[in-house]
Amino acid sequence: MAVSVSTVDSTSKPPGDVELPTTPDDAERRVPPPALVGGTPAAPAGFAAVKADNREGGFPTLWLIAPATLWLLVFLVLPLLGIIVFSFWDTEGGKLIADPTLEHYRDYFYTEGFFDSESRNFLTLSVFIRTLGSTFYFTALVMVLCLIVGYPIAYFLAMQVGSFKWQMALFLLCMVPFWTSYLIRAVAWLPMLGRRGLLNELLLLTGVVDKPVSFLLYSEFGYVMALVQIYVVLGVGPIFFSLAKIDKAIIEAARDMGATPFQIFREIIGPLSLPGVAIGMIFIFVMLMGEFATAVVVYGGKASTTGTVILNYYAIANYPFAAVNALMLMLAMMIGVVIILRVVDIRKEL
Amino acid sequence: MTTKQKRKTERSSSRGVSRRTLMGTAAGAAAVGAIGGFPAIVRAADPIRTIGLGVSIINEIQGQASTDLGFPVRGQALGYGAMFGKMLNQNDQYEIAEGYFNDMDVFIPSKVWQPIDTTRIKEWDKVTNLSKTGKLTPESAVGQGDAPFRHLWLDENGERVDGPSRYISMVPAWHNADSIGYNPEETGRKIESWAELLHPDFAGRVALLNVPQIGVMDAAMAVEAMGIMTFKDKGDMSKAEIDELINILIDKKRADHFRAFWESFGQSVNLMVSGEVAIQSMWSPAVTAIKAEGVPCIYAFPKEGMRGWHGGLAISAKVTGKALDQAYEYINWWLAGWPGAFVARQGYYMSVPENVKKHLEPEEWDFWYEGKPAAKELPDPFDTIIVEKDEVRDGGSYWDRFKNIAVWNSLMTENDYLVKRWTEFLTA
Amino acid sequence: MARWTPERRRRTWIKGGFSVYYVIFLVFIYGPMFAMFVLSFQGRRGGTSFPMRGVSLHWWEKLIEPSTVGDLQGALMRSLILALIVMVITALFSTMLAMAFRKRFFGSDALFFTVMAGLMVPGVLLSLGLATMMRQLGIPTNWWSSGLGVHVVWTLPFGFLVMMAVFNRFDARLEEAARDMGADEWTVFKEVTLPLITPGIVAAGLFGFTLSYDEFARTTLLAGANNTLPLDINASMTQRIRPTLFALGTASTVFSLFMIGLFLVIYTALTRRLR
Which of A185, A204, A284, A190 is nearest to A237 (CA)? Predict the structure, then answer.
């Protein structure tokens, strides 16, 4: 660990100073964490608050957050500020000109002929907003499917597999496809799902179909299935972790008291796994909203995602407009994450 | 699969292996250590760094350059987007940019490359008029769009000038003319017009290139050939023209005309080999690759003409002194013939054909440039046989092919608008 | 115990059902990899899609030869090293951050959303923003410096959220008990906290490794003169795609499965010795 021993010594307090909470209720005992999403006002400001908390023990907060904060400052915040700034800049022949303009934002939102009842575009939203909308549509659809497909797997790993050893092994088995570069996996979609692909061969062999079907690939069906296939594991992981933590004794107790499996799930397992679900859904949500490669490879480029729009404008060196699209995408993602966290406050629920 | 397409076994690879080993040593001199770039790597000499696509950045080529020139040349191959971004934004990270003339509307004003002094290009006089005037032969038609000659001439400050001058933006090198590739067994007929790309007979079996700037040109060639639309200049369409064209395409897409849109060379090969598409806009070496995989594929030679593109070698504005001398040496080496012969075996052409001829066997020259039947089996650059005896290259001779370039790959004035409408097309 | 038999039978059925579902799930998520396995043995005249043109080990042999475009072996090494460094830093940072977030502190909301922003900022633009910044400052980009920087930005939120989940169900009474007995913070961490959160740390690190190894967009302008594996593969697609890629994919899958097997063996041996 990077935290040196000396910094620890200075803050460790004699045990007598600590007001030991005695109530067994976990949630009551701990200092309520600040709201993550601004629903409740944040904790009292100032590092005094940190000091006050230190009576509970633990490493000093400042030391814990400093390295990551510095790292994020250099490699995320500053470049991000740069992106925000040049989204207002003009561009000429691929060169950014520091001449502030709102033009790119106007182009993003405004459709020519929106108010003109004669126009094709009458009351049609701009293509960029529509693209963001369709990206969101696929994201939501795939999230729901991932949850339906993935939850039982997480439940199986956490509740049905007995030993930690096998839990880890079976979970890692789900991760293995990720350790083959997605660019390689992408190439393999065609021989898998194509007209002469393995799946069609199998269908022909078993007599399910009598001639190769083409709806498996380059279709909405294939696209959604591929997205679920690629991202479901990201949801399984966190749900599995949160389920694995549930004290089995509680479930046994409930069962002894005559609770039906459905009641056990609704009252105990479901609520206790919610934080895992929330985290898994956040992972899948942000990955899908930023998705660009699968649409090209599995949908045959027959749909645009905001990710592909950004890449297209990046490729013609219109960086400000790519930046505007990126910032709007980030805004949508931020809203999505906030909504997920509103539903399940991962810091409060547990 | 026809018997004609059946391939003979690969020629003994012993030569290839020994050359590869040799090449490995040469490259080793350039990149010390197995994982180049890690801190504290000591280099024997500062290499000349060159970036580009896998078309020209091939280990054998830069390895041979290192051997011939006596200083290390390090190539970094990238995909198109990554290459474009790096060339434009990081000209301190390469000496040579192996770029493309259709991007010049971005690169000339950005001044990230320096004007190249033609008096330092030894073979400048031998470079054909295709890149200098747009006419390979005096009677050739000049194509619309970003032909090299429209983006070639600069003054010493890097500003555009009309007509021949001492300074140029980029030394024209490899180039080709693209059209349609098709599987004759699937189409059932010979394809001789761009119009076939949108023909209802092939609905659901058509693929189009998904690079808006280029894909839209193939589509424009098609609608023009169908006679449903005309363009003032396909290399620089107006907003109204883009609108009309995209609306036609949207209707076609809604009728499920397109099976897929491809983005990379490899993708286009796989689409045809796997039988997903019967006809698609395509790059010539991809057709060669498909045939090498045993699937019949013909490269159409449409009567309306082809879509040309031209690559070349530029020097970063940051390069001075000894590195600049070496950069010129590398460019001169490209024009001297060896690399031209190398890329010729993949189906690309070079701007100094007479030097290429010196490095090709006569049978190879006759096949690749003259368009004559192969007098014997011919290999690709990696010693794999890809041409059968008596095979004829689709599209005829180099001179036939390039006297009828309808349009060159271009970056249009209304490019931003085009990308916007193309997005709508894909979303439709 | 005869009266428990129906219950036990029911449980066995449920477990069996889940096991079957798990196997189906595995087949599903391995999806295109089956085609990849088969095609890695493609004949030497064949390509990366069906039909097979004979069967050979040709493309497996090619795996150790220098490639035509790019430098597959070097790029693979770079990506592995980078992913390992990212893994360590991700595990470390996300543990530290999650420990800090056990308490309230000034700016915790801001920090939380800054970490999350790493998930959301589109890769190519982060790459562009940082590259522009570094160019202004005259700092060269390299896969092990700027590349590492953005990779951690990308992987940290994953590790962080995993660790948040770990700590939030964490029984702090154990730590307090240790403090009561006079242990200093470092000892408390080493003896009490660490053993309990180790699975979480491993998970956070795994996320870091996996996401970094696969990362393409963020690296485009930040890798410097040497490609990472995804950049190299992307470049190779400007040429004919060869089944060598599938051999590489199959090899990495086999290697991963072997590592899982190794984990099982080592873990079994360790727990047996502890007993």
Answer: A284
